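Thread title: Can someone regenerate the structure for this chain?

I was given the following input by a collaborator and told the matching structure tokens would be attached. They weren't. Posting the sequence so someone can regenerate them.
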Amino acid sequence: MSVWDDVVGQEEVVGVLSAAARAARSLAHRRQEAAAATTPGRDDDPDAGNAGNAGDSAMAHAWLVTGPPGSGRSNAARAFAASLQCTGPVPGCGRCKPCRDVMAGSHPDVVRVATERLIITMEEVRGLVGEAQRRPWAGRWRVVLVEDADRMAERTTNVLLKSVEEPPPQTVWLLCTPSADDVLPTIRSRCRLVTLRVPSTQAVAELLVRRDGADPQLAQQAARASQSHIGVARHLATDPGAWERRHRLLMSPVSLRSVGDAVLAAASLVEAAETEAKEATAERDARERAELARALGLEEGGKIPPALRAQVRQLEEDQKRRARRARTDVLDRAMTDLLSFYRDVLAIQLGSDVERVNIDLADTVDQVARTTGAQQSLARIAAIEECRSRLGSSAAPLLAVEALMVQLRPQA
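Best answer:
Regenerated them for you:
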């Protein structure tokens, strides 16, 4: 067992991060020896300075972990954080208490931010900068892990610049983004870049079988349908209704016969996304409301005093933002599935021998490929991409999806 077990298909990245963890351990040992030899009363540290400037070229004080959605960049960053805190014989052993605590999200020296809203706020970033200035409580390093660094506005990212450029000697920043271009050049130039690639379908399928106990055949099919997106593959392999919802989504554009049908299909898709988002957040919302009521001394169903209404209102606003983010994620996943369908259609039309994604819909894909042209497929792919971009902005989801469905009609 190792903290790297869930980082599938990324052997090169695991090698780089493992070497950095070993160098970090060596650096920490030297610091301890230097501190023990320092004259009592002196406050200087002969190894003070950034981790990356201490002679261990494998280690750096700031890292930018990039990779396409589903590649496992957050898993890789968390595993690296665990290996930095590890006290076992080999960094990242996965068996010592620091490793287990980091992977469980309970280590006091690993600060993790994974926003469930559309952006990371200025206040949150300022809090991270403050956390980065603290010395480690129990481990060797103070690790600040930002899983959605691409969700920071430019002026918000600027708040990080000084701390990322010159952090305290025992602080390490880990920023995760889909692409290096998702952060400012000033931030990018101060981080060591690690890029993950799309894992193979076989590697994802093996992970589903080993970690989630999925049926091998279903795991292979889920890995291919998700295009090696680990999170989506797990969803398909473990949720009994996921395949039915996906099949219904991909068949809906083929069956549209009028603009009215397109409008109804769009409404159905958005409604299904909202339902799925509510189901995903309902339990957590209820738990948070109960915890807040208990902390404020409120009785269940009782009247909220005016002095406490602001705190309750803030929680409700946070939950609404989280629900919108969840809905956007569900719709984005639907757009990815539609892209995979027309990608298969276009591959057949162009005579490509690439492996199909939607093998369970082979007959439908063949039929659409025969009755339409490559130009139409390209236009539909462009329409899906445009809808996906609109969903990521402030556009009304229903209007964006309606416009898409109208363009996906066979007659369009």
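The beta strands are 62-66, 110-113, 142-146, 171-177, 192-195.
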